């Protein structure tokens, strides 16, 4: 892969443990993809547990050697605040060595303010939809189901967190949106279109690849759900659709992920069906995907849906809601249903259960599509976005006339 002759100098600020699970894994892959694309990166994580490429400079803010400040010691907001203040203070001494700052939510308010004063463009990662929108739709669905969110849950309404995130939205020069669904939630809240810039997430092709052995067309359909089993992921819609479909008569629905206790109790009658297998948290997701025919993700709110591209790369056809990434294209490489449309999802499951030729066509299309959405490809895309943002920021600055 050809690298830039004039590397973009990036300060990447991440207020959590780089390389841990969930978004910490996403951030690690993002840094790795950027490094491969040729960016000159200095990472300020709160701490780090997975090594990065040797050319990446790593300067933790809340760790010294093997000693780390535990997140639980300070709490979510205070931990992010502590990290943020360290980054903002360091920025003053290295401002001339930074072309752009990539920040993450709940740990960037002071950094964004300092950058604005120093004339450095900033992008703020939006790994999910607008937080106010997410609170609204998730809590509404929880109320409808009668499933209370535990205190401290990431989607339990928290006015202090919401205020902090909305302040960061305003302070950032640009918001990095990984899907058109995320863009739409910000436009609907009144944000100008030019403040929102698009990038993508990717998948690890070393972990996610297809099983090349021919599949037995006589066996029942295998459908899999991967990820935290929470209301926002719409597992109740997926279960309802599965049990409506004749695919459930001799097929298998694998559920890989941990449940919220109240949600599992609510779904207990559906989970008791003999075709449904609750696996809990698993470390062999790539292998499970390779053995599955379809992946289901019926989210009511989503940022990107990393499992969608992972599934395509594994030869597993995504059946997703329209909240998931637009990289899933209906009847091209996936099947897409409207949010909460159990009837449509059931029809999609049934169609693939009955039409193995269609299942194979969608599978092959996904495998052809997947190489363009690896983490390396995402790094190239993000680096291009940085260059565009830097150029626009320079243009904006040149239009500001000093007052006499």
Helix-strand layout with pairing:
Layout: E1 9-18, H1 23-37, E2 40-48, E3 57-58, E4 63-64, E5 67-68, H2 71-74, H3 76-94, E6 100-103, H4 109-118, E7 122-125, H5 131-145, H6 159-171, E8 174-177, H7 180-187, E9 196-198, E10 222-226, H8 235-244, H9 247-250, E11 252-256, H10 261-271, E12 276-280, H11 285-290, E13 294-297, H12 306-313, E14 317-321, E15 335-337, H13 342-354, H14 356-369, H15 375-399
Parallel strand pairs: 1-2, 1-6, 2-3, 6-7, 7-8, 8-9, 10-11, 10-13, 11-12, 13-14, 14-15
Antiparallel strand pairs: 4-5
Helix pairs in contact: 1-15, 3-4, 4-6, 8-13, 12-14, 13-14
Provide structural commentary.
The chain has about 400 residues and is α/β, with parallel strands linked by helices. It has 2 domains: about 10-200 and about 375-400, Rossmann fold, CATH 3.40.50.2000; about 220-370, Rossmann fold, CATH 3.40.50.2000. It is built from 15 helices and 15 strands. A 7-stranded parallel β-sheet has the order 3-2-1-6-7-8-9, sandwiched between helices. It has a 6-stranded parallel β-sheet with strand order 12-11-10-13-14-15, with helices on both faces. Strand 13 (about 295), helix 12 and strand 14 (about 315-320) form a beta-alpha-beta unit. Helix 4 runs parallel beside helix 6 (about 160-170). It is globular. The N and C termini lie far apart (about 50 Å). The mean pLDDT is about 95.
- In sequence order, what are the helices and strands, one letter per element? EHEEEEHHEHEHHEHEEHHEHEHEHEEHHH
Q: What is the CATH topology classification name of the largest domain?
A: Rossmann fold
Structural class by SSE content: alpha/beta
In the CATH hierarchy, what is the architecture of the largest domain at level 2? 3-Layer(aba) Sandwich
């Amino acid at each position: 892969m050809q690298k830039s002759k004039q590397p973009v100098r990036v300060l990447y600020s991440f207020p959590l443990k780089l390389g841990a699970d969930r978004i910490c894994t996403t951030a690690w892959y993002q840094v790795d993809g950027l490094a491969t694309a040729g960016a000159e990166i200095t990472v300020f994580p709160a701490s780090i547990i997975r090594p990065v490429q040797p050319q990446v400079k790593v300067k933790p803010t809340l760790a010294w050697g093997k000693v780390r400040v535990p997140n639980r010691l300070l709490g979510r907001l205070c931990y992010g605040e502590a990290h943020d203040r360290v980054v903002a203070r360091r920025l003053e001494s290295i401002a001339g060595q930074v072309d752009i700052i990539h920040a993450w939510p709940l740990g960037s308010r002071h950094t964004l303010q300092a950058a604005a004063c120093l004339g450095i463009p900033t992008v703020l990662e939006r790994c999910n939809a607008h937080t106010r929108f997410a609170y609204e739709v998730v809590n509404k669905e929880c109320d409808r189901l009668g499933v209370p969110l535990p205190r401290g849950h990431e989607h339990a309404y928290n006015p202090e967190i919401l205020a902090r995130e909305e302040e960061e939205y305003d302070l950032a020069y640009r918001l990095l949106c990984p899907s058109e669904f995320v863009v739409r939630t910000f436009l609907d809240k009144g944000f100008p279109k030019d403040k929102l810039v698009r990038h993508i997430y990717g998948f690890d092709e070393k972990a996610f690849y297809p099983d090349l052995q021919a599949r037995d067309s006589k066996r029942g359909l295998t459908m899999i759900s991967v990820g935290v089993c929470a209301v926002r992921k719409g597992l109740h819609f997926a279960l309802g659709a599965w049990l409506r479909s004749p695919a459930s008569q001799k097929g298998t629905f694998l559920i890989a992920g941990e449940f919220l206790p109240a949600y599992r109790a609510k779904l207990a009658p559906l989970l008791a069906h003999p075709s449904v297998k609750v696996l809990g948290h698993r470390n062999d997701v790539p292998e499970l995907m390779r053995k599955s025919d379809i992946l289901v993700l019926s989210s009511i709110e989503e940022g990107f849906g990393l499992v969608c591209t992972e599934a395509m790369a594994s030869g597993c056809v995504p059946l997703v809601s329209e909240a998931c990434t637009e990289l899933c294209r209906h009847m091209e490489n996936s099947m897409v249903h409207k949010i909460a449309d159990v009837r449509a999802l059931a029809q999609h499951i049934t169609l693939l259960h009955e039409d193995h030729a269609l299942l194979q066509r969608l599978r092959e299309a996904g495998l052809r599509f997947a190489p363009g959405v690896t983490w390396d490809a995402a790094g190239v895309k993000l680096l291009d976005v940085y260059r565009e943002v830097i150029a626009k920021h320079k243009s904006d600055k040149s239009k500001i006339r000093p007052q006499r």
